[in-house]
Design a protein that fits this description.
By secondary structure, the protein is α/β, with parallel strands linked by helices. The chain contains eleven helices and ten strands. Helices cover about 35% and strands about 15% of the residues. α7 crosses α8. Bound molecules: ligand PBG.
Amino acid sequence: MTTFFHRGRRLRQSPELRVLVRETPPILAEDLIMPYFVVETEERHFRKEISSMPGQFQLGLDELEKQVASAPGLAAALLFGIPAQKDEKASGSCAENGIVQQAVRRLKTRRPDLLIITDVCLCEYMSHGHCGILSDDGTIRNDATLPLIAETALSHARAGADMVAPSDMMDGRISAIRAALDADGFAQTPVLSYAVKYASAFYGPFREAAQSAPACGDRKSYQMDPGNAREALLEARADIAEGADALIVKPAGPYADILCRVRQAVDVPLCAYQVSGEYAMLRAAGLRGWVDEKAVMLESLLCLKRAGADMLITYYAEDIVKQGLAR
Ligand code: PBG
């Protein structure tokens, strides 16, 4: 007489059974959003590898176009701009001929099928590298920043962006953006809010890539404290109330618990952003042969879907699509 025990292995014994009972489907190409760093420069063929993100580049307009053309299966891109000039008013951020605005127009002409999302933030355009206007005492002027953020989002929509993604973490920005878009005939432009964005050291490589490290202080007065989880729900609900259509949780892997909790609390589509530091770690270990990079990368993204993400921003998006690793 054998005692009863759970035979979990029964449903794991063949690939056919395993696939039949799988809870989370594999990554689809259409789930993926690829970030690009576009540089304002006279140099026609500007292309510079980001040293802390091997395989990722700062690209001039022509090279961006080439890069995108090399990945015909790519469904969506997220654009970050690096302007030629920075100042205390982030003038380049909402300029009609700013670098992101030019890039949007160019890509929408050449690849109308590619969904273009723009990162709406001021840090890349500010001489001090903060995401808002700085007062003399070094604090951020939240409410004074809102019109500038709204104007930036509107300029992206006017250039043809399919969706705008504010990442500045100022309070009230979603309301301000929604009002500006609606008033200018862009009621149909969705807002993908970086609602749940932590003050994370995992953004380190990005700040090299986007040349946006704050010259003084840090971003802890506007980005969230990594120890807080309930606060994520407050931020998520507030942004939905202000009119956000979909939300981003960022970083992704180390914050999968947050993704899962936000998923249970709200019903809008959720996006996980696997950030620069997460990419850098996987890539570095992969380049040394310490992990099977392709396998850990796909697993890391699958886990984000399991945790509740509908879509994924990842620096691996282009590779996955090019290598046919997604359906
Ligand atoms: C801009 C912005 C940042 C990231 C996305 N938008 C940097 C920051 O907040 O310092 C990080 C993305 C990444 O690390 O890949 N505010």
